[in-house]
UniProtKB/TrEMBL annotation:
Gene3D superfamilies: 3.40.140.80. InterPro entries: LpxI (IPR053174), LpxI_C (IPR010415), LpxI_C_sf (IPR043167). This is UDP-2,3-diacylglucosamine pyrophosphatase LpxI. The keyword Hydrolase applies. Residues 14-141 form the LpxI C-terminal domain. Keywords: Hydrolase. GO terms for molecular function: hydrolase activity. PANTHER family: BLL4848 PROTEIN, LPXI FAMILY PROTEIN. Its EC number is 3.6.1.54.
């Protein structure tokens, strides 16, 4: 039994989830970010990369997502955050998770788009999450991907 069985309503869906609609540049960065994640996550890095204009700005390691976002914000203005589930993660307890504070940290770092692994990323406190996305003008989308090995 996993989170997917217990709280399926908290899993990111596919397509536009909340906030403003993504720009074509953000869509390209999200696709590029997922291709980078597929390459990196089997190496047991974190679950997150930040991309700006098809350049990798930050890769999550032991510092965690929030510190990765703030580091990315210190390096560039704007960017797309991509969060992906790895094949070697135990879905019973180790699943990518985002929440309102993720979006607040993105806003502080001036990051504009959050692309989530559809069906594999938990969105905590979804009502507040949507409210923060709208307030901060951050687009949130789910993208279907095979789990990375």
């Amino acid at each position: 039994m996993s989170y997917r069985d217990i709280v399926p309503d908290l899993l990111a869906g596919s397509g536009h989830i909340c906030g403003r609609r993504p720009t074509s540049e953000e869509m390209k960065d999200a696709e590029y970010g997922f291709s980078i994640c597929k390459t990196l996550v089997p190496l047991s890095f974190g679950q997150t990369v930040v991309v700006n204009k098809r350049s990798v700005v930050a890769v999550e390691a032991m510092e965690g997502t929030d510190a990765t976002l703030l580091r990315a914000g210190s390096l560039c203005l704007g960017g797309t955050v991509v969060k992906m589930m790895r094949l070697d993660q135990d879905e019973r307890y180790d699943i990518p998770t985002v929440g309102p504070n993720t979006l607040r940290n993105m806003a502080q770092a001036k990051l504009t788009c959050l692309a989530l692994h559809s069906g594999w990323t938990l969105i905590m406190d979804p009502e507040e999450f949507r409210s923060v996305a709208e307030k901060e003008k951050i687009t949130v989308m789910g993208i279907e991907q095979c789990r990375s090995s």
